[in-house]
Design brief:
Number of helices: 4
Structural class: alpha+beta
Shape: elongated
Strand content: 25-35%
Number of strands: 16
Distance between the termini: 62 Å
Radius of gyration: 25 Å
Order of helices and strands: EEEEEEEEHEEHHEEEEEHE
């Protein structure tokens, strides 16, 4: 019977969950708020779950063009477009903004209470992605993955497909956290986001270790119509000899055989030289 009206929109953490013996509400919760106060008997219908924080400690972020004030009222207007690194993530006890961030800028200054809505861009340096680690992801999964477009797609359940593998490998090599495991249609944007540049479209190029090749013309490359791979060795002086590695269906889906490495020109020939996009980290 204790009133909750003056606690609406308060943020807190559940401390305990118990069956309610007295009312037509099965479960009740002990909630401790960020300001130190608490309610001991909150029903399930009066609780909204808060989504997880969008950013994490160590992320490099930019303050948005429309940022006005921190959650404590301190002006952010002269810090718009400043770059910094998140030092801590906390629940905001005072306002209708779930998460706030302590951001330390590259010039040494900081803001302690930046709301999520005022952080509009996660920035990753190109050097954050290690091509050796990217290629090692595939080498480390040789003999361990079975091809499937309907399983985890990133190897977590022992199955994977081409695009899920590349996205997971880029992420583990230092790339930005993907919103989802992109397919060959949508992976182009993820590559650009991580400072890969399109250096060749449906034409020859001098292959370099770490280049990423996407097969299938955009708009027509979904499902089995597209493929993506990583170049593992440079072209020789004659423009031949480069190899690629990928998760593919070349073995017909034989158990544990999804990761394969081939000479790129031969592999492209077997597949009738598909429409291609080549991306290189810049």
């Amino acid at each position: 019977g204790y009133s909750l009206e003056n606690h609406r929109q308060w943020l807190g953490t559940i401390q305990s969950v118990t069956l309610n013996p007295n009312r037509n509400v099965a479960w009740e919760y002990y909630v401790k708020y960020t300001n130190g106060q608490h309610n001991d008997h909150v029903s399930e219908r009066d609780i909204d779950a808060v989504e997880s924080a969008k950013y994490k400690v160590g992320d490099v972020v930019r303050i948005g063009n429309n940022a006005a004030v921190e959650t404590n009222g301190y002006s952010l207007e002269n810090h718009r477009q400043w770059l910094g690194t998140i030092q801590s993530v906390t629940l905001n006890p005072n306002r209708n903004v779930a998460w706030e961030y302590y951001v330390k800028y590259t010039n040494g200054q900081h803001n302690d209470h930046v709301s999520e809505r005022d952080i509009v861009l996660e920035v990753k340096k190109a050097t954050d992605i290690d091509s050796d680690r990217l290629i090692d992801w595939f080498n480390n999964h040789k003999g361990k993955l079975t091809y499937s477009m309907t399983g985890s797609r990133n190897g977590s359940d022992g199955t994977a497909d081409c695009s899920g593998s590349v996205v997971q490998a880029i992420y583990e090599a230092g790339g930005s956290k993907p919103t989802w495991l992109y397919n060959t249609e949508s992976v182009h944007g993820y590559l650009l986001e991580n400072h890969y540049k399109l250096i060749a479209e449906n034409s020859g190029w001098n292959a370099k270790r770490g280049d990423i090749v996407v097969w299938g013309e955009q708009g027509k490359s979904s499902g089995a119509a597209g493929h993506i791979m990583v170049i593992t060795s440079d072209d020789d002086s004659n423009g031949n000899g480069a190899k690629e590695i990928s998760t593919d269906y070349s073995t017909g889906g034989v158990y544990g055989s999804a990761v394969q490495e081939y000479t790129y020109n031969e592999y492209a020939g077997w597949n009738h030289f598909p429409y291609s996009y080549v991306y290189r980290q810049v």
